[in-house]
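Summary for the lay section of the report: proteins are chains of building blocks that fold into shapes. Here we show the chain for Hydrolase and then a coded description of the shape we predicted for it.
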Amino acid sequence: MYNTHFRLAEITLAGLCSFQHLGEVVSPSSPLTYPCDQKPILLFLHGWQDNAASFDALFVTLAEKFHLIAIDWPGHGYSQPRSKDNYYHFVDYIDDLNQLMALLPDREVFLVGHSLGALVAGCYAAVFPDKVAGAVLIEGLAPLHESPEQAVQRLRDGIASRQRYRRRAERWGKGRGMSSFQEALQLRCVVNHLSAEQLAPLVARGTYQDGSNWYWRHDHKLRCDSLYRMAKEHAKTLASQIQCPVLSILGRSGFEALRQPGGGRYWLQNGSQVVVGGAHHCHIESPQAVCEHIVVFTSKFR
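The coded shape description reads as follows.
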């Protein structure tokens, strides 16, 4: 995979792609040179506090049949953070994706999203049905939603989390340093319950060294709670408007709620669901099974 950059209106996204090119992508006719064949594009959208390398285990297998592009969301990996007064509202990711899609060539695009990336992919497919050939949603379906009765507490907690972030930022600046890359890797292993080998690509892209310490690249504002969450009716309306085929991939010990009737699967017009080994990062734990499901799924609509 090769490094790439996409210049959006207010921010530049970094990413990886399966073909080499020079320059920054600013329009479909910019220095990005796409291969002349008509293989479809798989556009990978990672989860919260992950990065494009979250999909590293899938790249070699899927590059045989697709052109691959994986981006770092704003404030993640090598992408720019949002402005200091921006706290990463969910709907802004959909705008980011829309700008990114405008920079891609005129060919079939399948979205592959994990967790946050899956939620963004689903909403985008609902709003722009003519731009998406299909969507693979890994451990994520409809947008996160909750009862309207939670709105006051949600707003109160969200504002409090920003205050805590500001106090930490004054004290720690760029965050607490870690003594080595290995320490950062082990911290993620504990959080995600994955092996060092499985997480090494993701952590390598998500950290940097400054002097004798290592730091996380992601914007620490990402940890602030949302001030608002959709009601169930809003999430159901969005999911039900997805016209393209959808494949939901879940980890056997992942989010159990996504298998339930209210999890969003039965709100889809044309959706199927499969279960593979692993938990929330099942695409890292069972990459071969995930690749096989993606290949079979996309072959039905081409």
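Put simply, here is one thing we learned. The first strand starts at residue 2 and ends at 7.
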